[in-house]
Amino acid sequence: MIDVEIDADRSIRIVTLDRPAARNALTVGGLEALEDAVADADESVLYLHGRGPAFCAGADLEVVAALDGDREDAVEFARLGQRVARTIEESPAIVVAGIDGPARGGGLELALACDVRVGTPDSTYGEPGVTFGLFGAWGGTVRLPRLVGESNALEFALTGRVVDAEEARRMGLISRLEDDPRDVALEITDNEADACAVLKRRVRDDADRGMKERREAEAFGDLVAAHADDIDALLE
Asked: Where are the transmembrane segments (predicted)?
């Protein structure tokens, strides 16, 4: 489900979410493989993208349904997604998300953890969890308001609406629009790797957000327990 290609000459690691038939939705195994692919990176730049017509649909709904309303298992699943997002955010590499097609829920949240987000004109963005009684719990409530402001974050997440690439750029969800987002990752590799790494560390230097993430995971667990039947209905 995760494909890794390394361009040693340019010091870039290309990590591909490789489950196109499921819009690259992530299972527990997929999350763990993604975590390993990022944690193992020795390259100065890591480019994350999805194969096929979507970037990532987020968590596989079959996995969420299989939680069967178990609050503690739901908390653990949320914590896994948060851990993967932190691994992306704290990677020594500069992580560039190349977003083509839909980025939804947890897929968007993983993109938010990247250092640079570049969308194609066909990319779209949404946090649809509220439409079936949940919300994104892979660090989204921490990162989204930091990037787009509290008011925009609340409106975007509470309505569950989908925004196109131009609106996403205006909001600050992405920083650039390119036909081939990989070009931006290659631009970064042209610069001095040590300077880029130091710059990332300084910009990423932030107050402890562990408590916020723990509370987010606990709230997700509460909702999974309360909406187990609604989640099952999505698969019918």
From this structure: none
Q: Are 148 and 173 in contact (CB under 8 A)?
A: yes
- Which strand ranges, in their side-by-side order, compose the sheet holding 162-164? 102-104, 124-126, 162-164
What's this model's pTM, rounded to 2 decimal places?
0.89
CATH 3.30.70.260 fits 2-181+204-234, yes or no: no
DSSP string across 102-158: EEETHHHHHHHHSSEEEE-TT-EEE-GGGGGT----SSHHHHHHHHH-HHHHHHHHH
Work out the pLDDT band at 207, boundaries 50, 70, 90: low
d(CA 92, CA 197): 6
Per-residue model confidence as pLDDT tens digits over 68-107: 889 999 999 999 999 999 999 999 999 999 999 999 999 9
Q: Count the Cβ atoms, other than its own, within 10 Å of residue 234.
A: 12
pLDDT digits (tens, 9 = 90+) for 20-75: 999 999 999 999 999 999 999 999 999 999 999 999 999 999 998 999 889 999 99
Surface-to-core class of residue 20, CB atoms within 10 Å of its CB (0-12 exposed, 13-18 middle, 19+ buried): middle
Listed in order, strand segments (DSSP E) in the chain are 2-7, 12-17, 45-50, 94-99, 102-104, 116-119, 124-126, 162-164, 176-177
- Give the dihedral sign, CA 108/114/119/122: negative
Q: How far apart are CA 113 and CA 84, in angstroms?
A: 9
Please tell me what DSSP assigns to residue 202.
Answer: H
